[in-house]
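Before a colleague's protein record goes any further, I have to sign it off. Alongside the sequence sits a line of tokens, each denoting a local backbone shape. I want your independent view on whether this chain really folds as the tokens say. Where you disagree with what is written, explain briefly why. This is what I was given:
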Amino acid sequence: MSQNNSDATGEQPFISHLVELRDRLLRMVLCVLVIFLGLASYANEIYTLLAGPLMQHLPKNSTMIAIDVASPFFTPFKLALVVAIFISVPVILYQFWAFVAPGLYKRERRMILPLLVASTLLFYMGVAFAYFVVLPLVFGFLTAAAPDGVAVMTDIAKYLDFVLGLFFAFGVCFEVPIFTIVLVLTGLITPAGLAEKRPYVIVGAFIIGAVLTPPDAISQTLLAVPMWMLFELGLLCSRLIAPKPESDYPINEDDVMNVRLDKIERHEHD
């Protein structure tokens, strides 16, 4: 009987966790769906706004094209869905935080919530940097590099995939300070160790910029240099919040004397 009770108590918390996870996932999906329904009627306007950086650099009377038959209908709705997910990121992160928070220590709860907020803001900053800075420079360079007699036009679906790839790349790369702080907090590396690896980080930033961006030096540099600067920011923050080793704490002579007396008394008692 007791064995059955222990099995039941072991299964019940697991099932309750699954139920809570299901409820929170449903809330995330519902939030995205509600925002998507609100944006669906403005899908074409949102796509026009997204195409602005390219249209400004196209020759006069040039337009974008749609190769697939259904692209003019589905592509703007795909963009509206992605925008709905971007807008729902705070809600999604909050649901994730609310699910894992009961199993964390108090110190961990104090650290994770600011990190979630900071990571959200940094991701949005990366997307904004890509839209307002990177896209105009990239499209200005690519359209100017076209040979004479070549009409610069692009498919609306391929343009959307290209821009979303850049947004995701810059959004993730702007999370470098968070990755740096987490590495230090988990004890995997020290701020001094990170500082020693600075040359490798710089080279890695340019390699990542070459892989994630179009094959031009402008966009590669625009991704690599901010990654380097964000690494320096994360290194500075990690030095401020990193736990100090015991040797760094001041030694109180009275406490040392009390410990020695306690050891002597225990030795005499034995």
Notes: DSSP finds twelve helices and no strands in the chain.
